[in-house]
Specification:
By secondary structure, the protein is an all-alpha fold. The protein contains six helices and no strands. It folds into two domains: 1-65, Orthogonal Bundle (Flagellar transcriptional activator fold), CATH 1.10.4000; 67-106, no CATH class. The protein has helices at residues 3-27, 29-36, 40-48, 51-58, 72-80, 88-97. α1 (3-27) packs across α3. The longest helix is centred in the first third of the chain and has 25 residues, at 3-27. The protein starts with a helix and ends in a 9-residue tail after the last helix.
């Protein structure tokens, strides 16, 4: 993948994520905070962003979101979800919910 194509895809992912996150926060802040793994401060900022601010933030060459897990056990559970392990996704969600919410710089 060429560098410019990669940067364009990162920007698209950022824009999609920010739009989704803002919509979720406006719909149900508590649920959005849980699902996104963000603090109330971050949710409040997301809620108030104008479309122009979202576009400016998305035009970053770094991903603005990250995986909520660094634990290979959670990755294994999520990747096996749907392969006969009915409770794997639920168990992974429980483990991830115990992790602290990310701050603005995370």
């Amino acid at each position: 993948m060429k560098t410019q194509q990669l940067l364009n895809e990162i920007r698209e992912a950022n824009l999609s994520y920010l739009m989704l996150a803002q919509g979720m926060v406006k719909e149900d802040k508590d649920t959005a905070m849980f699902r996104l793994g963000v603090s109330e401060d971050v949710a409040n900022v997301l809620e108030k962003l104008s479309p122009a601010q979202i576009v400016r933030m998305a035009n970053n060459n770094m991903l603005l979101f990250r995986f909520r897990f660094d634990d290979s056990m959670i990755v294994d559970m999520l990747s096996d979800y749907g392969n006969g392990k009915l409770m794997a996704g639920t168990h992974a969600a429980v483990l991830m919910s115990a992790q602290p919410a990310a701050g603005l710089t995370s």
